[in-house]
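Throughout our pipeline, every protein is held as a single compact record rather than as scattered files. The record that follows is passed on verbatim for readers who wish to inspect the format.
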Amino acid sequence: MPFVDKLKEAVFGKPYDPLNPETRQNLAMVAFLAWIGLGADGLSSACYGPEEAFLALGQYTHFGLYLAAATSLTVFVIALAYNQVIELFPSGGGGYKVATQLLGPRAGLVSGSALLVDYILTIAISVAAGVDALFSLLPPGAQAYKLPTQVALIIVLLMLNLRGMKESIKVLLPIFMGFFFTHAFLILYGIVAHAEGLPHLIPDTIAETQQLTQQMGWVFAVSLFLRAYSLGGGTYTGLEAVSNNVNMLSEPRVRTGKYTMLYMAASLSFTAGGVILLYLLWQAQYVPHQTLNAVTFGAIIDSWGFGPTVGHGLLAVVLALEGGLLFVAANTGFLGGPKVLANMAVDSWVPRQFRNLSGRLVTQNGILLMGLGALGILLWTNGDVSVLVVLYSINVFITFSLSLLGLCQHWWSSRYDVDHWKSRLLLSWIGFTVTGGILIVTVVEKFTEGGWLTILITGLLIAAFALVKRHYEYVRQQLRKIDALYAPRPDWGEDLPEPPLATEQPTAIFLIGKNRGLGMYALKWINEVFSGHFKNFIFLSIGEVDAESYGGKGALRSLQYQIENSLRYYVNYCHSRGLAATSYAAYGTDVEDELEKLVVQVATDYPNAVCLGSKLIFDNESWLISWLHNHTALAMQRRLHMREIQMIVIPLKI
């Protein structure tokens, strides 16, 4: 094995066999691992969402009790609503598929674009907030090293995810469990230690609220609460991740997905609500260069009387785990973002390369894009969490709102066919009202503070994706016209005589893709230009195992059927013309590698062979149009020429 291949295997691991049934079983996640891999984003938002909401109250901190209750309730409402998404879309896709299939392709485009920006920001904000938590322990002079630390951590996470989803989760498992148990203990202890304040908390809150409304009016009080509640919307992020990645879960997927959602909702509701309650009971105040969690947990640990050295050490452990969980949460962006890109690539909104899987069966192009996008946004914002939270919250609530609106429409249109549709419709409507309200308030409040940038970025993505779709649709229409010229005829039956193959005779090896017209064009071209020269006609095709064919149940069998049916078409055509023909197929994630192996194998048996492939040519072809299409024919020509195997690339102008 060459040194480069050995190094690649050491870094990324050995490739998997996508056709081996045990591979999928080994990669699928049970509910516990899914809670860690997909739920960390939601749970980690307790490190910054409650703080944003509480600080937005200003001096009116008594509203924190309402925030704690509203936050816990909202988490469960959204989680229960998204259980319906898991039921309706057990193959995954989440908000993008919900909006596409229930509201239409344009709504799906908006939802998918918002989700992509959201997942990039998930990585950026999680890493930035995690580094903030860690640097709360360091002197102010260390702040200059925050951004380089954030960049390094994103690169580490990117490399972990290129190794595989399950591997990255196992590495991060101790951090997640350490965070959960330490924070659960601190929250419970903090509440019990100040339990004497609990009996007075509700009456005092009500009295202070009445006093405020008498002085400032109900409109002011309600507006203040809604503003703080909306600005804490980052707390609910990550709840859509399970529905987006159902296909990654172990069977039965729907049940596993619901258990994962339950774990996520319970842990996030307890942690976020409990943290806000701690702010109230321990009268937390903002301290420069420290998070509100650091201030509160520091006060709790100091109350144990261990002394400054031990106390600082314990706080360091807590904040290190808090920062670590945020890094685990960043992993959700690397899991969910590529999945959205793959789904959008299937629908031709984004370049088809984002459907491709690596040898480790991960969508490596999507992972790389997520990592580069997060690095770019971190460098642009200088890792400022307050700016990132604004960008983050708006996009995630666009997706929430569209998904829940789609569910409302679905249950209303299915009211005559589905039992208990009223309760499901009510739940979806409540969820839509909550998420839509948070979206509107956040956009209005933060429009001039960075909200406009989120809308601009998402809008530019929507426009770019629409142009990509338009191009692919045009090409598809042209290829349909070519395919229509070569429809199968009744005289191409299976019982035709099969002329024998002669291994020493001139042989034409055709590298066949998905479009019948391209293959037939090459076949007719070779017979016209080299009439009667070739005696054997061999057709090779590779079934590319991509995110679509590996995602759904039975999708691989469907891919195999399509490949076999396509090859049978060419062989039957040749037999109907009295030509000796046969076909070979292989399957894998790398089309070029598999084709090269297959060609070498066939060329060994047929030494007097020439390979042929087709390539689309466009008027005014630019680098962008060139990037939207694969260049398998040209890449194979280079590879085969290196092996001294002849290949002709036949251009077909669109």
